[in-house]
Every structure is written in C-alpha cells, then in structure tokens.
Amino acid sequence: MPDIVSGVAVSGTHAYVADNYGGLRVVDVSDPTSPQEVGFYRAWDAVAKVGFSATPKMALNVAVAGGLAYVADEGQIGTGPMT
C-alpha cells in the first residue's frame, strides 16, 4: 500500500482498504499468504480527467454492503460498485 491504512472491510475473497491519500485499494486475499492488489480508486483522479480540479481527500474508512463499497473521506461518503 502506498500510504497509511485507516480502514479495512472484507467481502468474499477481496479486502477493501481505505488508504488515506492512496484512496480505496482492492486486494485479492484468496491466498492469504500472498495478497495481491487488483484495483484502486481515487476520487480526485476521476475528477481531474473531466477537467475539474479537486483537493485530494483522505479515504478514512470503508464498508461493503449490497455490492457497493462505501468510502468515508474528509467530509463526505462516496459509493461505488465492487466490480
């Protein structure tokens, strides 16, 4: 992980990691002796791609339910599909 882990939620074979400025990290934990990062999402990266600026926020916690990952940052909660 590139930053400081502040929250983890596990669903099935994946761990969803709130990684402060690293955003949401998705880790395949099907082999606990060799976890592999399989994806990540940082909200400010997506905003920058469409021509807006955004202040990076820290992903502070994460929860998963009903096929969505809920990420709390500094001041708001965002949701996204776990696929």
Written description of the protein model:
It is a single chain. Helices cover 8% and strands 43% of the residues. The protein is globular and about 35 Å long. Residues 48-55 have low confidence and may be disordered. It has one domain (7-81). A four-stranded antiparallel β-sheet has the order 1-2-3-4. Strands 5-6-7 form a three-stranded antiparallel β-sheet, with no helix packed on it. It has 83 residues and is mainly beta. It has one helix at 43-49; strands at residues 7-11, 14-18, 24-28, 36-41, 61-65, 68-72, 77-81. It is built from one helix and seven strands.
Secondary-structure topology with pairs:
Elements: E1 7-11, E2 14-18, E3 24-28, E4 36-41, H1 43-49, E5 61-65, E6 68-72, E7 77-81
Antiparallel strand pairs: 1-2, 2-3, 3-4, 5-6, 6-7
Question: What series of H and E elements makes up the topology?
Answer: EEEEHEEE
Adjacency order of strands in the biggest sheet:
1-2-3-4
Query: Spans of 5+ residues with little confidence (pLDDT < 50)?
Result: 48-55
Rg result: 13 Å
Task: Please give the number of β-strands.
Answer: 7
Please indicate the percent range of residues in DSSP E strands (runs of 2 or more): 35-45%
Instruction: Name the assembly state.
Output: single chain
In helices, the fraction of residues equals: under 10%
Number of helices: 1
What's the pLDDT, averaged over the residues?
A: 78
Structural class: mainly beta
User: How many domains, in number, for the residues?
Assistant: 1
Query: Biggest sheet: strands, sense, closure?
Result: 4 strands, antiparallel
What is the 3D form? globular
Tell me the span between the first and last alpha carbons. 20 Å
